[in-house]
Amino acid sequence: MSSPHLPPDLPAPPPGVPPQSPPRTAGFGSPPPRDGRGVAFFVAIFLGILLVASAGLNVLLLLLGLGSIAGAGLGDLGDGPFDEVHVAGQKGAATRVLQIPIRGAIAESATPLLGASGGTVSQVRRALRHAAGDDVHGVLLAIDSPGGGVTDSDEIHGLLRAFRRDHPQKPVLALFGDMAASGGYYVAASAEHIVARRSTITGSIGVIMSAWNFAEAAKKFGVEQVAIVSERTPFKDLLSPTRPMREAERALLTAIVDELYDQFVDVVDAGREKLDRAQVLALANGAIYTAGQALSNGLIDEIGDQEAAVRWFRQRLGVEVEVVEHRRRLGLGDLLFGSRAAPQGPEQAIGRLLAGTSGPRFLYFWEGGR
Q1: 201-236 pLDDT, tens digit each
Q2: Rounded CA separation 261/182 (Å)
Q3: Active-site pick, 68, 153, 182, 240
Q4: How far is CA 141 from CA 58, 144, 145, 157, in A?
Q5: 315, CA 20 to 30 Å: which among 22, 166, 192, 212?
Q6: pLDDT tier at 344 (50, 70, 90 boundaries)?
Q7: Residue 202: its H or E element
Q8: Backbone torsion region of residue 357, taken as left when φ is above 0, otherwise alpha when ψ lies between -120 and 50, otherwise beta
Q9: What residues form DSSP beta bridges with 88?
Q10: 182 carries an active-site annotation
């Protein structure tokens, strides 16, 4: 007799075993088998991934912050850490002179990254803070520059003048490399003594502001710039590249260049006691000079090299001296961001100076020194 719970085509179970339900097969209209993992399981996995990613990002930001503090200090890109490198003079001498390099275009980065060394102004400011310490007895400015921004050059000049005022017992000498033109000479005028190598090119005392004008090309190709300005601000589209410059605009810009030129003349006149203003004006015509010509004209004090600079410090301070340079160690920001966070070379500085703004700039810069 067959079991009432089983279909007729299934065999009866053995004695003592309860009847079993037939296995369910997946077919049309049948629900799929369940593996026990619902929507909540996958939501939990997703939230876990987000949590791990957030924790990793927070750790990275913390490391960046620590790297910025360690590599840059607090405020104005900081003071350390750095390595001290022997440059010239008697190694190990108790009297030490700090060499401050000013190489390439004088330009300050507008937005240095965390831990970045910053531009020329920041580097000089940091070095002068080191020079103000009791273990430094003089400053050697190693200048090899075609000049740069008007404001950047003037700020460095001001920093050096303030250093000399606050530390009169610490002499400052400028030593020229291949060139110290325009803003490079502007900075050097703050020094007590200037030495140029016999192959140095210097001078180029003056101001320049250049811009491209495509008015003729725009007319030829049918290009027109639409600029909406008020009648009360007729100079608002000054230096538009798609129309000829007006005479009133040229006069306005020339007046600014003349004022900045007078500032340059004032700086040289104050810095070169051997020259009177009339002599400075005669030399300040934008011309460049060889070291021999600069010496004859009173723009420099001596033709020599680094040994000549060491000799001057030795005579000035009355003891043997060692010239050292502080080279900043790379921090975490430098390693993460590469060359943008590392000290900039001449090519990068010139590019930042000439292409880092949306328009023309007034420059103490010798264009031939690129």
Answers
A1: 999 999 999 888 888 898 888 888 888 999 999 999
A2: 11
A3: 182
A4: 42, 10, 11, 11
A5: 166
A6: very low
A7: strand 201-203
A8: beta
A9: 323
A10: yes
Backbone angles phi, psi at 27, to 5 degrees: -145, -175
Question: What is the pTM assigned to this prediction?
Answer: 0.73
DSSP per-residue letters across 30-63: SPPPP-S--HHHHHHHHHHHHHHHHHHHHHHHHH
Give the integer Cα–Cα distance in Å for 338 and 343. Answer: 10
Instruction: Measure the CA–CA gap between 28 and 318, rounded to whole angstroms.
Output: 105
Residue 70 near residue 332 (C-beta atoms within 8 A): yes
Estimate to the nearest angstrom the gap between the alpha carbon of 161 and the chain centroid.
23
For residues 165 and 186, what is the distance between their CA atoms, to the nearest angstrom?
Answer: 18
Cβ atoms 109, 352 nearer than 8 A: yes
DSSP 125-185: HHHHHHHTSTT--EEEEEEEE-EEEHHHHHHHHHHHHHHHHH-TTS-EEEEEEEEEETHHH
Q: What is the distance between the terminal CA atoms of the chain, rounded to a whole angstrom?
A: 110
pLDDT in tens, 324-341: 999 877 665 555 544 443
- Helix count and strand count (H, E) for the chain: 11, 11
Q: Which of 8-12, 44-48, 240-244, 321-325 has the lowest mean pLDDT?
A: 8-12
The catalytic position among 91, 210, 236, 339 is: 236
Q: How far from 41 is each of 13, 35, 49, 299, CA to CA, in Å?
A: 40, 12, 13, 80
